[in-house]
Amino acid sequence: MNTRGKSRRADTGSRDRRRAADNRGTGAAAGDAGAVEPAPERIAKLMARAGVASRREAERMIVEGRVRLNGKPLQSPAINVTMSDRIEIDGEPMRAIERTRLWLYHKPAGLVTTHKDPEDRPTVFDNLPIDQPHVVSVGRLDINTEGLLLLTNDGGLARELELPSTGWLRRYRVRAHGKTDQAALDRLQDGIAVDGVLYGAIEATLDRTQGSNVWLTMGFREGKNREIKNVLGALGLEVNRLIRISYGPFQLASLKEGAVQEVRSRTLREQLGPRLIEKAGANFEAPLLNDASADDKKKAAAKKAAKAGKPAASGKKLSREEKRDRDLGRLDTSRPQAAPAKKKPVNRNRSSNVWMAPGARPVSSKKSTQKPAAQGAKARDGAKRAGKAGTGRSRNADRRR
User: Fold this and answer.
1) If phi over 0 gives left and psi between -120 and 50 gives alpha, with beta otherwise, what is residue 123?
2) Is the overall model pTM greater than 0.85, yes or no?
């Protein structure tokens, strides 16, 4: 009896220990107030998911010694971490992972799609609104290419959407110098090899001919570097304007140049679908953090002001005397002030100071106005009398005859 009781108690204790262990692993135990500890993953992947940079750029930042892990400088990206680890980038703590978001951006020509350009050319991210949160681009567009560019705060989603295996169609409007026909463009559906590089199927339509240029609409799913320029160059065409009008289900539509528009969370989930959300690891349950901190806004404003050659605006509120001194300092006393405009002379034809109704005309003296009229009337009366007298004389002469 005692042996059986001991064995039963031992079995019960082991089951309880297993249940407690399972509950600690899943966070489902009663009274468990802590968050579920995610599985460790590569630090570059975690940085990309937090929207710091793409995985490749994150690995480059680690090799350059810009990343510290738990207070120690990190030299190799081959390490697994979790969000409980303390990660610092350029001396500042890495931001927490927030809800996955996506923006549509109409990129103007002349901007480089990179966060930092070694040639100090203007970049896409320097020209975004100041209140825009830190984002990464889905793929890239050449400096002279304009149109739709997708931006996201989730590096994992950016990586998944730019892969050819995702199968999203990218459409472009192309203006090229030269001549071609639809038959030559239809052969691109079978793929083409240019300088040893094999390009997949391309949908191309000849829209119209404009002088020595042609307008085309092209669509493909790979998106290799300079794909359209290389393919059309093999057909004897020189691209002089390139506009991306769609990327998968997202359209440029009437979005103005330089404008940014966020895709609603519900629409984004519907367009991605469960399979793509799972592959990208998109998180739609995370909290929605503030778009940009005050420090980020100040840095962005100072950077834009420095490029424009203007002094950066300080956040200090000026007093009335300081505002007065600032406004007086803006006055330029070196240039002579413009002479005041001459007033139109007032019409003073009236001979007396009398009140007149609006729209009435002044009446002059009778001598100046009525005398000519009277003289004209007298002349007309004299002419009538002379006519009548002449008619009477002619009638008398006829009677005498």
Assistant:
1) beta
2) no
